[in-house]
Specification:
The chain contains six helices and four strands. It is mainly alpha-helical. The chain has a four-stranded mixed sheet with strand order 2-1-4-3.
């Protein structure tokens, strides 16, 4: 019984170490960084798209407003050619000039938007050229992570089979005690080496050692310092 418990504890300890290692793999950090790089690339790609869409709307709006101004100005010019009264002609000329100034402002705005659009198109094309490298890095990182995790999962699977076999041969009451201590302390079973508990690494007094040794061999003693099951 004692050797079986120690074997169970050894398996559980190795499984704990493997599980911890699995969650701290360098391949996991690499994959996380590669995923973040892809997400950053996608965010930048989408941002280029949003900015270009906004510029397209601005350009189309400027062209639409310019067209309205041109039509209005053409009507005023036609009206001006039929006007005889100087005051009315002066008023029409002022309105035509105001429209021409607005048209010039729209032209400047549209030209600036077109220049920004061209620059963004170049940046987006350059950014798109990075996609193969970003996706390639992610693919390599994911593959390395899958391999590393697969190896650990295989070991954990083998340990689980051995663990199940050992637990089948132990009494339910003992297993419940073992599992409770495992949940509290991580290591539930330890050897008594001389006068030292190999679990908490504390020395027992002579009286405590004698009390542990006095426990029937068919029973398991407990460490008076940490409460772990002691194998003598």
């Amino acid at each position: 019984m004692t050797e079986e418990l120690l074997a169970l504890q050894a398996i559980d300890t190795i499984a704990d170490q493997l599980t911890h290692r699995r969650s701290h793999l360098p391949e996991l950090a690499d994959a996380t960084a590669a995923r973040a790089a892809r997400a950053d690339w996608e965010r930048q790609r989408d941002e280029f798209g949003r900015q270009l869409d906004a510029l397209t709307v601005e350009i189309e709006s400027a062209e639409h407003d310019s067209g309205d101004i041109d039509r209005h100005r053409d009507r005023l010019n036609a009206q001006l050619r039929t006007v005889i009264a100087p005051r009315e002609a002066e008023a029409l000329q002022h309105e035509i000039k105001t429209l021409s100034d607005r048209r010039s402002t729209l032209d400047d705005r549209e030209l600036l938007a077109l220049e920004q659009q061209a620059a963004l198109d170049d940046e987006r094309a350059s950014h798109a050229g990075l996609e193969p490298a970003v996706l390639g890095r992610l693919e390599v990182a994911e593959a390395a992570l899958a391999t590393a995790m697969g190896e650990i999962d295989q070991q954990l699977s083998e340990l689980a089979e051995r663990r199940a076999g050992i637990r089948e041969g132990l009494a339910p009451q003992l297993l419940a005690r073992y599992d409770s201590l495992r949940a509290q302390l991580g290591v539930a079973v330890a050897r008594l080496v001389g006068s030292r508990c190999d679990g908490c690494h504390l020395d027992l007094s002579a009286a405590e050692v004698e009390a542990v040794k006095a426990v029937d061999r068919t029973e398991l003693a407990e460490c008076p310092q940490c409460g772990r099951l002691l194998v003598r």
